[in-house]
Amino acid sequence: MTQPERSASAAGEARVVALVSSGRHPVSGRAGRAREDARAVEMGLALAGASLHLAHAGDAEDAALPEYLGMFHGLEGAGGPGELSLLPMAAGDDAVPLLANWLEAYGANLVLTGQRAECGEGSGLLPYLLAERLGWAVATGVAAIEHYAGDRVTVLQALPQGQRRRLEVRLPCLLCVDGVAPMPRQSAFGPSRRGRVEAVANVTAEPDTLQAAWQWQPARARPKRLKVVKSTNARDRFKAAAAKSSASGGQVLTDLSPEEAAEKLIDYLRRERILTAPSGE
Predict the structure, then answer these.
(1) Could you give the CA distance from residue 157 to residue 167 in angstroms, rounded to a whole number?
(2) Distance in Å from the first CA to the final CA of the chain
C-alpha cells in the first residue's frame, strides 16, 4: 500500500477520526468488521498512524468493536493501544446529531467512514446528513489519499469501469471510502484486548422521528435489463461487455430552482415505480 504524502505543517494539526459500525458476514451472518469501514480505518492508519481515533455510535456490547482496535498492531509502541469513543444510543435513536456534537467537541478536521452500513437502515445517507449538519465538504467513492496538507487533502475517487478521478478537498471534510480501497490488515487478538473503549458521558441521543413514521414492506425484485449482443465474434462480445454503457433517453436539466429540480426527480422516480403517488392524486 502506498503511503500518502503529508506536509510537515499538517503533522501537528491532523485530528483524523474513523467512524466504524458493526458488519455482517455475507454468508454466515456472523458479526464482525464492516468491509468499507475496515478500509476506512486502514486508510486512516496509513495517514495518521497510531494517532487515528475511532468512534462508534451504538451498543457498547457490539462484538465488532475489538476487531477494529486489533488493527493497531505494530503501532502500539508509537502511540499506545488504539482508542475508541463509544456514543451510547438505542436502535431507534438518530446517530447524526450525536456524532456531529461529538466531532465538534473533539475538534476533528478529517473524518473517514464507509459509504453505507451493513446493518440497520444501510441507506448511505448518514455521511451526507452529517456533513450537512457540520457544514463540511464530503467526498464519496474515495479509493486512496494521495496528499495531505494543512488545509486540504488530495484523494482519488473511484469511477465506473476502473477509472479514477483526482479531487482536492478543503478541510474540514468527510471522506466516504469505497470498496475498491486497499484491503484492511488483519485484526490481531492482543491489541484488540489492550485497546481502550471509552463511553462518552453526558451525551443524550435524540429519537429518530422520521424513521418512526416509515412504513416497511418487502422489497420487490426488479428485473435487470440485459444487453443483447448479436455478434458471434468473441472479441466483439468482450468489447460490448466491458464497454461503459451510455445512457439513452436521458434529459440534462440545468438552471433549475431547487423546487423545480425536486419535482423533476420525483416525477422520474414515480415513472420508474420507485415511489408511489399519494392516494389523493
Answers:
(1) 7
(2) 55
With b for 16 or more beta-carbon neighbours within 10 A and e for fewer, the 93-115 pattern comes to: bbbbbbbbbbbeeeebbbbbbbb
Does residue 9 have a pLDDT over 50? no
CB distance 169 to 159 below 8 Å: no
State the pTM of this model. Answer: 0.73
For the chain, domain boundaries: 5-212
Which pLDDT score, from 0 to 100, does residue 156 have?
A: 94
Segment holding 199, helix H or strand E:
strand 196-199
Per-residue pLDDT tens over the stretch 55-110: 999 887 777 888 999 998 877 555 567 889 999 888 778 889 999 999 999 999 99
Residue with cell 441507506: 123
Q: Does domain 5-212 have CATH number 3.40.50.620?
A: yes
Closest CA to 15 of 136, 135, 109, 86: 109
Angle at 106 between CA 50 and CA 68, to 5 degrees: 40
